[in-house]
C-alpha cells in the first residue's frame, strides 16, 4: 500500500489508521486490555501502521474495572515499536453526562505527559494532539509547550483536533503543526472549508468518525440496540427515526456505487475521502478483524475526480440529519 504523510513532519503512515477509541470507550463495555491489544496487533499484521488513542479513552468492563485505551495500545505495539506510528491526545476529560471538559494549560500538559508515556510504555509519542482547543489558553501558548516537548524528545510531531483556521495559523506560526484531526464523513463535511488552509500549510487531515459512527456501513438503524450508557451512538441524529429517514438517501447513493465496484458501502465511504485528497487519512475503528480488513481494503478502491465530484454534488442536494457538535471525542 502506498503510504501517506503526516504533513510537514514527513512521518509516513498507512493510508488508513486504526481509531482505537471504541475498544475501551464510547462503544459499549470496555474490552479487557489483553483482548483489546490482540485486536490492535491483528490490525498491525494486516498492514495498519497508524494507531490513534487518547488519554481520556477510558471505560469500564462488565466487571466494573476501569480500563485505559493507552494501556492496550502500548501492550500491542511495544514489540513492533519501530514499525508503527502512535498518536495520542491530551487536554480532554469526560463528564458523566457525556459532555467534555477541556484543560490545555501548560502546567497540565507538562504534568500529564509522563503518565501518558508510561501507559503506552514508550519514550516518545509520534503525534501528540491537543484533543480540543481550550478557550482559556491561547494557541501560541499550547504551541510553545509542544516545541518544548519536541526539544525534550518526548514527541516527534503535534496536531490539533477541532482546529479552525485562526487557531491553526496561530499555532503553526509558533511550532509547525503536522495534522488536524476533525470529524469528517459524507454526513459531516463542514470542515471542507479548511481544506485550502491545510494545503497551504502542508497539514494532514486525520478524519475521525469517517463512517458517521457506523451509519455509512449500512449495518445500523434506529432498531439497533446499543450497549447502554457507555455507548455514545445511542441518540445520535442519524439513529433517530426522523434522522435515519433523512439520511437514507446517502445509503442509497453509496449502495449503488458499492454494487458497481464490487465493494462494500464502508469501502466506498472511505475511498471517497481517500481519493479526494492525498493528505486525508481516515481512522475508522472496529473490534472485529473482518471489519478491520474490509476497511483497509478501501485503499484499493479508486474513484475518479469526476466520480468524487458527482458524489459531492449529490450530497449537496440532500437535507441530511448530522451530528454536528464537538461535544464527543
Automatic annotation (TrEMBL):
GO terms for molecular function: oxidoreductase activity. Gene3D superfamilies: NADP-dependent oxidoreductase domain. Residues 15-315 form the NADP-dependent oxidoreductase domain. It comes from the Bacteria. One of its GO terms (cellular component) is cytoplasm. Pfam families: Aldo_ket_red. Keywords: Oxidoreductase. InterPro entries: AKR, Aldo-Keto_reductase, NAD(P)_OxRdtase_dom_sf, NADP_OxRdtase_dom. This is Aldo/keto reductase. It comes from Enorma massiliensis.
